[in-house]
Design a protein that fits this description.
The complex is a heterodimer of chains A (286) and B (233).
Chain A: H1 3-34, H2 41-59, H3 62-83, H4 92-114, E1 130-133, E2 136-139, H5 140-162, H6 164-174, H7 176-181, H8 186-208, H9 218-233, H10 238-258, H11 263-277
Antiparallel strand pairs in A: 1-2
Chain B: E1 2-11, E2 14-24, E3 29-33, H1 40-48, E4 55-60, E5 63-64, H2 70-76, E6 78-81, H3 93-98, H4 109-115, H5 117-121, H6 132-144, E7 150-154, H7 162-177, E8 181-185, H8 189-195, E9 198-203, E10 206-211, H9 213-218, H10 220-226
Parallel strand pairs in B: 3-8, 3-9, 6-7, 7-8
Antiparallel strand pairs in B: 1-2, 1-4, 4-5, 9-10
Helix pairs in contact in B: 7-8
The chains are: A mainly alpha (286), B alpha/beta (233).
The complex binds adenosine-5'-triphosphate and magnesium ion.
The site of adenosine-5'-triphosphate (ATP) has 12 residues of chain B, from β2 and α1.
Chain lengths: 286, 233
Amino acid sequence: MTVEFWIVQTFNGLSYGALLFLLASGLSLIFGVMRIVNLAHGSYFLLGGYIALSVIWRTSTFPLALLAGAVAIALVGIGMERLFLRRLAGQTLGQVLMTVGFALIFQDLALLIWGGDPYSLPLPSWLQGVVTAGALRFPKYRIFIMAVAVVIGALLWLALDRTRVGAMIRAAVDDAEMAQGVGIRVPTVSLGVFALGALLAALGGGIGGGFLGVYPGLDFEILPYAFVVIIVGGLGSLPGAMVGSLLVGLLDNFGKALFPELAYFTLFAPMALILALRPTGLFGRT
Amino acid sequence: MLDVSDVHTYYGDSHILHGVSLDVAPGEVVAILGRNGMGKTTLIRSVVGFSPPRRGRVSFKGNDVTAWAPFRRVERGMALVPQGRRVFASLSVRENLDVARGGTGRWDMARVYALFPRLAERAQNRANKLSGGEQQMLAIGRALMSNPELLLMDEPTEGLAPLLVREVGRVIAELKRAGLSILLVEQNLPMAASVADRVHVLNRGQIVYSGRPAALLADEDVKSRYLGVASTT
Ligand SMILES: Nc1ncnc2c1ncn2[C@@H]1O[C@H](COP(=O)(O)OP(=O)(O)OP(=O)(O)O)[C@@H](O)[C@H]1O
Ligand SMILES: [Mg+2]
């Protein structure tokens, strides 16, 4: 096993982790503020990818495609929260079942509109090819994914940690009832967080479309990864989602490269271990 | 200011408040006394909207607010100092105050810091690093940040050392002088009696005594029956 192997696999793991971060950060914040386990979050990822695909077929403009997918799904998220989930506030089981229902509907809808064939998002020329460093070759697109995740992670962190609205969101994560009791419009905060989470997941799906592809079943394939990320990192914690994503990205990648027949074991065994030692996750409140 | 009439509040199937009525006039301090588990916190939760009553009415400044979301009541001028303080643990002291900022009036961060200089010293600390007494000050300061007209205080002296109990008593008296209406839940009878204009005693979800503090202090029967105060005769 060469040094190159380790470098390349680490690079691949980190870029996959960067993609997972886009998906999981929103899921984690949504759970933190609303205590909703959103099982339709993987569907946002998938639909974001499909919409980006349709837009790029018509316009051939890559950034526009990503943006369109993200905004469209944010609107879907707003509709879901306002019209459906809010009615079931406080009823955990009802909400989970409703999000499962939506996930299944979205799955069928996607099959109906885009069919059963797998697609790959065509990349603009400036994102094709590799960067070489000595004998090593790094795909430009994976570098792009990491750059996007770093920028989004930094913006999210600044917004959450440095602004009054961010402090309101953290207050709602700490104690939603008391947050209302000091005058914070928690229903509006929840709606905003839900929309933001949907937007980020769809953006992840669009970006992931040029790397994982877009195909039926991707929604339920990626969702467990997002849950492992937020359980390991700690529910409701942004730093937790960052560290959890990178950890899961690396574990998954090295697991598949080193012990292909044990890939799930290498992902879930460390998760079980972390949970046994820290039941609230690495950054969760105890 | 506040008018609570025939309120019945439940947690699931357990019927906790059995027709409680009371009112608080502008500028008045009304105290609620009663032993553990008698429904004092449930009454506060009914007023602020955390546990809306199933029957009865809560009116505030002329509006029927029984079905309003808690944040709307706060926007209209209620503020809560909850039992157990419930400061936002992962926010700094300054952020705890800042997220509650609202309304117009004399309270802002500088005024709160002037009232509780200790909070100014610890402005950048996370709230969960504060001592119990400091957290209580923060909970009071946070409530004031919304410039309320009615302050709901649920056992603000619980678990505090005698010196701090006096400090909280001083602050309540000062807020009263400034014209604030206060609904105060207390188990500390001398403290409540010293600041309140009127007192009610709650027992198993019903008001069993209402009167002036001096009259309650003199009523050995009510004190021993409902407050667990040993009779001195
Ligand atoms: N969330 C809840 N679910 C079910 N029952 C509850 C809940 N909270 C309180 N109770 C019950 O309601 C009754 C009244 O409780 P409440 O907290 O209002 O009492 P309290 O007078 O504030 O007591 P304390 O002085 O200990 O704070 C108690 O019997 C309590 O066990
Ligand atoms: Mg209580």
